[in-house]
Queue: 4 jobs
Job 1
Amino acid sequence: DTLGLVRAGGTGCGSSSPTVELHGPALSTGGPVPAQVAEEAEGQVWLYFPLQTALGEAEAAMRLQGAQAMLPLGARQGELELRLDRVEGGVDAAALRDAATRSAATLAQARDAWAGGAFRLVQGDGRLVGEVLLRPDQAPLVAVYDRTWWTGGLVWSDRAEDGPDILLSFPVEPALRGEEGLLRLNVPTSTAVVPADVLPTELDRRLALVPGVVTDAEREATMAAARVEADQAEADALVGLARVLAVRARDEEGVCRPWQQVDPTLAEVLVGYDVQVEDDGGRCVVDVEPELPQHRRRLRVRVGPEGVLPAEADPP
């Protein structure tokens, strides 16, 4: 869907006045534009040129190397890169005009969407998992609601800029060590990245920013379904783990050991829970309850080797 043309001044890219023309979904040079050339490594040339995006003009940097051209669209290195085949020779004029027409249409739509500021967060299977409201005179509002994290509705967020990315930080559950939620909204690709670390990683989650509002009824129904799904996932994982602990806790002398002695590597998994192992009629049982009830840390359960046990009655 992206087509471009690099015209070198004189006899090569190292000469004066090269131009770039590039047209893709929601990004375009609008025609030939002058480019600055830098050779930063042997066989690797970078072209710097103005590029129109949904939020105005930005400076783009395209790397030419071998048979490929690479245009980074995200602020973090290696993230959201547009890769194009590099072919020597001209470009069909009709194809270039057609690409420019399509690009202008998608760019106009993207500008309208970002001017409106209302986006639905949609995961790869098409499911709604949150929303973002960007307003010019107020702090952005964010809501996330799926099995992994939860705001309980729309909440205020802090906004920062990082190149082509808008960073939104906001209170979220679970907050096991006081951390906040973070979304990186990439303007050129209309993608919301949930980063797992400072640098891009395969553990990052990508969501589509789809223009549109979420109705109150739709939000409530989606949140209710997300709560059920999260609670079930928590129960499935926690009960299975507690059963294993209940079996392995008894040592050769018949003493029920604390979970830290059974498997200290579980510290990361059990953060946010109070977990106690005790002897109950000759068997080890595991009592689990959240230190602070919150999303994915809501289950209070008593588990023995055979599975979930009735909770102990509270004293009268």
Job 2
Amino acid sequence: MKKIIMMIIIGIILGSCGELRYGIQKTINEAELERQAKILREKEAGGSGEKDEKIVEEAIKDISVRSINKRVQFGETTL
């Protein structure tokens, strides 16, 4: 009887190893994503908040005072 119970317990433990590895890998991936998000916030990227809004407002003011040209040149192409 003890041998049967031990075999069942060992089977359960060995069967859960795959899920344990999956859980560890998932945790590592989530930590990496969080680290990348933190770097983007520090570099004033898309999720930077107030700093990003100030930059956008300054750009809008700068663009609004520019003269409007009817021709735009990209390299050798003129539109």
Job 3
Amino acid sequence: MIKLFKTKPKEILNPSKDFQDFMTNYFTGHPMLRGRGEEDITVWERLKDDELVTAKDLIIDELDKTTETAYMRAAGIFRDKRAIKKLKRIVRKVTAKRYCYERLYAAKVLFDWVGYSKYLKLLDDTLHIGGQWTKINLDYWIKGLNRTDALKYVFLLLRDDDSFVRWNAYGALKNYFNKGGQEFEETKYYTGDEVYVNDKLFEDRLEELKHKIQSW
């Protein structure tokens, strides 16, 4: 059931170019623009007065109807307190297995915004059962975490049976410690299939990596 505003969003007559850009990015443009995370978030710096108020109202209303992360991202940018309850509802109501990514995304926006205390518990409960897309976004999930927690999730996914997940986990590790770009041979040394299938070699490489990290 669609929930309606108690007060209908103000209609914008003769919208500015900035408001038209907002509508294109979030409502009238191709859905893949939002699906790929390519919406122009600079629009939130340009909207003013009634147009900004209406834009916020429309996004907050949309949080009742969808789990699209573009609207969660927007809420995390303009940070209207009305969105907090709606983001928490997404975390609470969506099915973990089917919407693991969306659920974690809502929790991460809350964590970055209000220090959401349930975020790490959600990572513990759902990251390992998430699909490839959820796992390869580890770089985002660990941003802002303390070193101990970040490393826990990195090493969880460095042990994943999907080589692409392991590859991205190593990239997330390097990004977390600001160690420069991800190099092919270096990454392959720790995450390649020929290493992963050899249990002893794989464990030795991970131990080697742990020692390396101690100096970072």
Job 4
Amino acid sequence: MKRHWPLLGLLLLLVVVGFYFVKAGTKIIKAPALLKDIVSGEGLRLKDIHYAQDNPDDRVKWVLDAKEVSFSSDRETIRFKAFTLRVEPEDRSGFQLKGDRGKYTKNNGKIELWGNLDGSSEDGYRIQTEYAMINEKKALLHSDRAVKISGPYFQVNGKGLKADLNGKRFEVLSAVTTVIKEDEIDL
């Protein structure tokens, strides 16, 4: 009987190892099905992300940091919450916008932003509004809501905005009030 102890020990070891393989195998089979359900259903959700868009065909490059991001099932639409968006136009200094939520649609290159938008540029300008849309292919920013733009020498309030992100030109569309800070400039 002593001669059979090593064989019984080996058999017991094989049974235990086999049990764990069978148990682990069922988990491996279930995990991809769960991932497939998430991606094909409502899309994929991620927390605390850093996403960069650096397509050479587009006139604007940008980097997104957000607390929460969800991708559509076809991965063409990205929705995000509590974000900071750093925009880098081709031929001028960049700026960043912070806000509550946004949506990026890849096929048309549009970034829509909503809620407490507060933007600042490297050269001292600031914009505040509740909604803005950036067209990365044309390097344009547009808003149809109330806007406040301030710079080192002026402040402009109004409704609606069109801005060329690669140029130094913006247009407030209606109900415009402008304040020039004359103590800052020599007249």
